[in-house]
Amino acid sequence: MKFGIFDHLDRSGPDAERQYEERLRLIELYEWAGFHAYHVAEHHGTPLGMAPSPGLFLSAVAQRTTTLRFGPLVYSLGLYHPLRLAEEICMLDQMSGGRLELGVGRGASPYEAAFFGVDPATAAERFDEVLGLVLKGLVTGRLDGKGKHFTFDNVPLEVTTVQRPHPPLWHVSRSLESAPRLAGEGSNVALSLPTAAAADFCGAYRASWIALERSPDDMPFLGNTRNVVVGDNDREAIAIAKRAFKVWYDSLVHLWRVHDVALPKQIFPSEFEDAVAEGYVVAGSAGRVLEQMRADIDKTGINYALCRFAYGDLTFEESARSIRLFSREVMPELSPGQGNVGNTRMPASVVDRIGHYGTESGIDIAFPFR
C-alpha cells in the first residue's frame, strides 16, 4: 500500500504567483512526509486547472524535489503534437533523474478540446494514434509512422528517457468495462469513483490480471482519489472541508455551467454530505480519517491511495496541517513503514522556504514531526 497526491491545482484565489509558490512548498512537504508521487491534472479555460501546461509546472517540481516521483494525470493526448510531447517526456525524465510517471488520457471535457479546434468526436482515435506514436518513439528513439492525423518519417529524438523502455504508464478511468483491457496492458490506473464502484473496478482488474497468469505481487497501482482534510478535531476539520468543497466543486463544473448544459452523470455529488457518504471526501480528526480510509481501502481493494490535500480555498496552513497529521498518524497505521514519524529535522533548504509559516499557522511546519 502506497500513498500519492492528486492535484487539480484549481484556483484558490486571485494571486496566481502566490498559489504556484505555495503549492511547490506543499510538494516539498509531500516529499518529506513520505508520499510516493505527485500527480497533477491538465485543464484549459477553467479555474479547475491552473496548470494548463503540466510539463512546465512539473519542471519546477523536478528542481524542488529529489526523491518524490511525479507526473501528469493526465496529458490530454488529443491536444498534443506527438513530437513535442515525446520530447517533453524525455526532458522531464532526464531533469528528474528518472522520476516521471506518465499519465495519459482523452481529456474529460469536450469544451476544452473545442478550445483547441479539436472535434471531441475524434478524441478516441486521436488518443490511440498519439499514444502509439509516442510510446514507439520512446522505445526506438525515433518517431516513425503514418496515421490519420500525424505522419512521421524517421524523426530522431535526440533526448531519451532515463527509464526504459519508458516511464511507468498511467490511465484514468471511471468505466468498469475498461478494467480487463487496462489489466491486459499492465497499466497503472487512477480512479475517481465512489467506494462501491471502485470495488467493482478493482475486482474486475484483479480477476483479469490473474486470468492472464500474472503474479499478484506484480500488480500495478490501482488508485482512487479522495479529498482529505485532517484537523485537531472532527468539527473543525469537517467545517474546513465543507467550505473548500463548495469552491472546488464550482470549479469542477464551471464549463458545463457556462455552456448551460446538464452535468455528466459521472460527475461528483454536488452536496458535501453526499460526497462524504459516497467516499469522495474524508475529513475529521486523525482517528476519524484513519477509520474512514481503512474502511474505504478494505472495501475497494486499492493499493494506492490518491489524496487531494489542497483544493478549493484551503489555505497553505490548513493543507500543511493535514499533511502533517496524515503522515504522522494515518499513513503508518495503514501501511507500516509509510509516512514520516521520526524526529529528524526538515532539511535546511526546505525550512528556508516554508519555516516562516509556522508562526502564522500556529503549527510547527518547519519541524512538523517533532
Short description:
The chain has helices at residues 16-33, 54-64, 82-95, 110-115, 123-140, 179-185, 195-211, 234-252, 254-258, 272-277, 286-300, 316-334, 348-354, 357-361, and strands at residues 2-7, 37-40, 69-72, 75-76, 102-105, 142-146, 151-156, 169-173, 188-191, 222-231, 281-285, 304-308. The chain contains 14 helices and 12 strands. Strand 2, helix 2 (54-64) and strand 3 form a beta-alpha-beta unit.
Descriptive key words:
single chain, 370 residues, alpha/beta, TIM Barrel, 10-stranded parallel β-sheet, two-stranded antiparallel ribbon, 14 helices, 45% helix, 16% strand, globular, disordered C terminus
Would you write up a description of this structure?
By secondary structure, this protein is of the alpha/beta class. It folds into 2 domains: 2-52 and 224-361, TIM Barrel, CATH 3.20.20; 74-167, no CATH class. Helices cover 45% and strands 16% of the residues. The protein has 14 helices and 12 strands. It has helices at residues 16-33, 54-64, 82-95, 110-115, 123-140, 179-185, 195-211, 234-252, 254-258, 272-277, 286-300, 316-334, 348-354, 357-361; strands spanning 2-7, 37-40, 69-72, 75-76, 102-105, 142-146, 151-156, 169-173, 188-191, 222-231, 281-285, 304-308. The strands form 2 sheets. Strands 1, 2, 3, 4, 5, 8, 9, 10, 11 and 12 form a 10-stranded parallel sheet that branches. A two-stranded antiparallel ribbon has the order 6-7. Strand 1, helix 1 (16-33) and strand 2 (37-40) form a beta-alpha-beta unit. Helix 1 packs parallel to helix 12, helix 2 packs parallel to helix 3 and helix 3 crosses helix 5.
